Amino acid sequence: MVSSPHEAMHRIFQEYPELFTGVSRLLGLTLPAPTTATVLPTDLTEAKPVERRVDTLLRFGTENEGAFLLAVEAQGKKDPSKPGSWAYYLTYLYEKYRVPPMLLVVCQDRTTAEWASRPVRIGLPQWDSVVLRPLVAGPHNMPVITDAAEAGKDLALATLSAITHAADPDVGAILRALSTALRDTPETVADPIVELTAQGLGKRPAAQEWRNLVAVDLSFYKSPLSEEIRNEGRAQSILTVLKARGIDITDETRTRIAESTDPELLDQWLARAALADSADDVFTTP
Fold it and tell me: How far apart are CA 102 and CA 129, in angstroms?
């Protein structure tokens, strides 16, 4: 099953293709500045019953040096089968589109990043037929952005900073800088940042810190994550009122309240909880 960090690590380049320009410079490459960026289909499946899909595939256009393709792969751990797949992706893309392909691998731990960075030579010892050289972005080379002003200058890079450093002890400072930078950002811009960051943190402890920051700093937003956090607060209030009034709360009742995503219904339940004689009264229209 694909994890939410996996999705965020490559989807951020779909949402913000221009991010690759800054990332490539951080990785020591000087590439022509793209003038266009097009999201391409990610299905690389052949007619044979072997399904192959790259995580994200982009076509960049440049003003003077033609187009190039960027395949972005999110890699959570070492996988001996991946280099072969990556080499296949690049040769297939070159055959299909006849423009230079590149591979960017995004990681969240140094061990995986170091493994992914190693060139893979395909051929005989005397002659390399193909040499796979992925670009790798991870905690070893992505900046730690802890200044809100700096984060505000490039929100996409600040988001990638949070995602790639999700397991670092200092990730809290990155998240605080990002949430502060988003306070004065239009909701249409901030919403995907909020969601991508939450996805990228996955189930790590930093995910709860991000939820708390969103609940406080971005309480006026109506993004899915913000609404989810507010609904959690409503549900907890209902349970607190019932407990304070000495009403027994079954697991079924707790689950029903916790899993509700309707804010109006939760508000109704909270009002009923103040007068209810039993937990069932919360769900019954007077």
Answer: 17
**pTM of the full structure:** 0.72
**CA distance linking residue 117 with residue 105, whole number of Å:** 9
- Give the number of C-alpha atoms closer than 13 A to the C-alpha of residue 6, restricted to the C-beta side: 9
> Residue 233 class from Cβ within 10 Å (0-12 exposed, 13-18 middle, 19+ buried)?
exposed
Distances (CA, A) of 212 to 122, 123, 198, 255: 48, 52, 11, 22
Higher pLDDT, 15 or 218: 15
For residue 105, give the nearest of 58, 69, 73 by alpha carbon: 73
CA distance 10 to 191: 17
Q: In the predicted model, is pLDDT for residue 275 greater than 80? A: no
Please list the residues that pair with 59 across neighbouring strands: 38, 69
Do the beta carbons of residue 68 and residue 102 sit within 8 Å?
Answer: yes
- Token pair, residue 163, equals 């995602």
Angstrom distance (rounded) from CA 273 to CA 237: 9
Burial of 262 (0-12, 13-18, 19+ CB in 10 A): exposed
Nearest to residue 163, comparing CAs of 148, 153, 178?
178
CB within 8 A of 124, min separation 6: which ones? none
Burial 11-46 (b: 16+ CB within 10 A, else e): bbbbbbbebbbebbeeeeeeeeebeebeebebebee
Hey, what's the torsion of the CAs at 184, 185, 188, 190, to 10 degrees? -110
Percentage of the residues of the chain whose pLDDT score is greater than 70 = 90
| Structure-block tokens of residue 184 | 């004065």
Quote the tokens at residue 199.
């996805």
Nearest-angstrom CA–CA distance, 168 and 183: 24
User: Two tokens at 160?
Assistant: 């990638």
